[in-house]
């Protein structure tokens, strides 16, 4: 991708293996089940009461009002309605208040090089993250997000 080999080496040499990330990923890993689901997979049932609260609804309205021009532009340009964007940002980061504290380079390098079950996927995300950082003019050693390498208000993976 036209990276300077020494610069790339210097960045990756500063990435740190995070055993906490490996433990958290193992907790997320699917486990074999002897019985399939008997109804909805439970995600909505488990999370509804956590997210649909008077305070969260009010915070979502405040966020929507504050960013209504940007939300309208996003709808016009990308076709994603504001309620979808506000909902994702609310669930993932509580409207930008909880963005993650893990250095993305550490999370993705840890998972790419030390998590065999999904190493190929995370190696691709690390590659995309480095490309994204270069394109956006961001220092890849400074960006922070989730333990799995998700970034930004929506906590999306780099790809």
Which labels suit this protein?
mainly alpha, 2 strands, 159 residues
Would you mind describing this structure in some detail?
This protein has 159 residues and is mainly α. Helix content is 58%, strand content 3%. It has a two-stranded antiparallel sheet. Helix 7 (104-114) packs antiparallel against helix 8 (119-136). It is globular, with a radius of gyration of 18 Å. The mean pLDDT is 92.
Compile the SSE list and pairings.
Elements: H1 5-13, H2 19-28, H3 43-51, H4 54-66, H5 68-78, H6 82-93, E1 102-103, H7 104-114, H8 119-136, E2 144-145
Brief summary of the model shown:
With 159 residues, this protein is mainly alpha-helical. It is built from eight helices and two strands.
Question: Roughly how many Å apart are the termini?
Answer: 15 Å
Helix residue percentage: 55-70%
Shape: globular
Work out the radius of gyration. 18 Å
Which band does the percent of strand residues land in? under 5%
- Quickly give the structural class: mainly alpha
In total, the number of strands is 2
Q: Which segments are poorly predicted (pLDDT under 50) over 5 or more consecutive residues? A: none
What is the arithmetic mean of pLDDT? Answer: 92
Q: Biggest sheet, strands in spatial order?
A: 1-2
Helix count equals 8
Q: Report the order of strands and helices.
A: HHHHHHEHHE
How many strands, which pairing sense, and closed or not: the largest β-sheet? 2 strands, antiparallel
